[in-house]
Specification:
The chain contains 16 helices and 16 strands. The protein is of the alpha+beta class.
């Protein structure tokens, strides 16, 4: 016997028993986002490596450690680790800046990051998210947060914590970075190797570190005083205050977390995370924010933008498993020719129906029907001779005889 080939570490099969849960969160996304004026976009799974280096940021863990990159025809290509950069590339390349603002897009699909697999996090994972282009006003920030909360509520997640913060603009952020480096300089040798690199390249990302020793340093009084200081300029402050006011109007409860910086370099001003109290320490189910410079950095015109993404595996882990939907009907008969004709007729009329291809005895077919379908359609000699079908309700054993052309209406009406 040949050696069995198994699924690769960090990937998993989505089996038929699970697929209804996936369909549920995907179909809910389509409904919630479409109702808010968002159109679905599907971008390629791999892009030029430069797109992520420039877009996500070459100081991030994603670019430095986690990307699946390969060479082909002397070009460097990367399986997408996230989808915002790809959507922005498509927005620019396809001239969507000429469309009336806002341009509202949503997506779903697989992403790839080389990291340690853990609960709800795989090397091939799936995200659902949205991007909005062309609106600089805080109304866009509030809509993004509201849309995320509405979607999570729509799939049945209500025990949520919304955390927000303002990273300011590049101008006011420079002074903050300078103060942060000054107060952390005495502790530089105690920081983890990654944070020592971030200290020089992107001090703001120090606050995103998950290493306990680093987190302890950031809790020191003199460090925390700088971290929690209100460093943003008056314009950014006014923007953030408006975001909070709009969230209050919408009835969305939130808290301000000064340590919230997000793990990607392109964010500015508003950033947010939504956490579920039903998960452990890795409890974030949604992350996003504003990224007003990314379109320009990737070759487009100056365009304000805001968006978020959610890990679909995490969402599914928080939901009760959906029961597999039963067939509308299962044909029970020993006459293969008549069975094939009936099954084809019903399928053409959008009825979910199957039959026993091995032509087992009636009792065995009925037994199988009771497990797979809501109704058994019995085609015996009498039914075939009379041009009728016996319809047995497998929930209560009630049985009636109907004409073939009546079947579609009966089965659809009791779905």
């Amino acid at each position: 016997m040949a050696k069995m080939i198994t699924v690769q570490k960090g990937t998993k099969d989505i089996l038929p028993i699970e697929i209804d849960s996936w369909h549920f969160i995907e179909e809910t996304a389509k409904r919630v986002f479409s109702n808010a004026g968002y159109s679905e976009i599907r971008t390629p799974i791999f892009e030029a490596t430069e797109l992520f280096a420039r877009g996500v940021g070459d100081t991030t863990d994603i670019v430095n450690k986690e990307m699946y990159t390969f060479e082909k025809s002397e070009r460097s290509l990367t399986l997408r680790p996230e989808n915002t950069a790809g959507v922005v590339r498509s927005y620019i390349e396809n001239g969507m800046h000429r469309l009336p603002a806002p341009v509202k897009l949503w997506y779903k699909g697989p992403m790839f990051r080389y990291e340690r697999p853990q609960a709800g996090r795989q090397r091939q994972f799936h995200q659902v998210g949205m991007e909005m282009f062309g609106i600089s006003q805080p109304t866009a920030d509030a809509e993004a947060i509201s849309l995320a909360v509405n979607y999570l509520n729509a799939i049945g997640l209500n025990d949520l914590d919304v955390e927000i913060n303002s990273l300011g603009c590049p101008t006011c952020r420079e002074e903050y970075k300078k103060r942060l480096k000054e107060v952390l300089k005495p502790y530089l040798s105690e920081l983890c190797p990654d944070c020592q690199k971030r200290y020089e390249k992107n001090p703001l990302r120090l606050l995103d570190c998950k290493v306990e020793e680093c987190k302890a340093i950031y809790e020191k009084p003199e460090v925390k005083e700088v971290i929690t200081s209100d460093f943003v300029c008056p314009e950014c402050h006014e923007h953030f205050e408006s975001v909070k006011k709009y969230l209050d109007v919408l009835g969305i409860k939130y808290s301000v977390n000064k340590l919230l910086v997000r793990g990607l370099d392109y964010y500015n001003r508003t950033v947010f995370e939504i956490k579920s109290n039903n998960l452990g320490s890795q409890n974030a189910v949604c992350g996003g924010g504003r990224y007003d410079s990314l379109v320009r950095n990737l070759g487009g015109e100056d365009t304000p933008a805001v968006g978020f993404a959610m890990g679909m595996e995490r969402l599914i882990s928080l939901l009760p498993q959906k029961e597999s939907q039963k067939l509308d009907a299962y044909v029970v008969s020993t006459n293969i020719e008549e069975t094939l004709k009936l099954v084809e007729y019903l399928r053409q009329n959008n009825i979910k129906v199957d039959f026993d291809m091995t032509n087992k005895k009636f009792t065995k077919q009925l037994e199988k029907a009771s497990k797979l379908a809501r109704f058994a359609l019995i085609l015996g000699e009498d039914e075939i001779n009379n041009g009728t079908v016996s319809v047995k309700n497998l929930a209560n054993s009630e049985q009636i005889s109907v004409q073939k052309d009546e079947l579609g209406g009966i089965l659809k009406n009791v779905r």
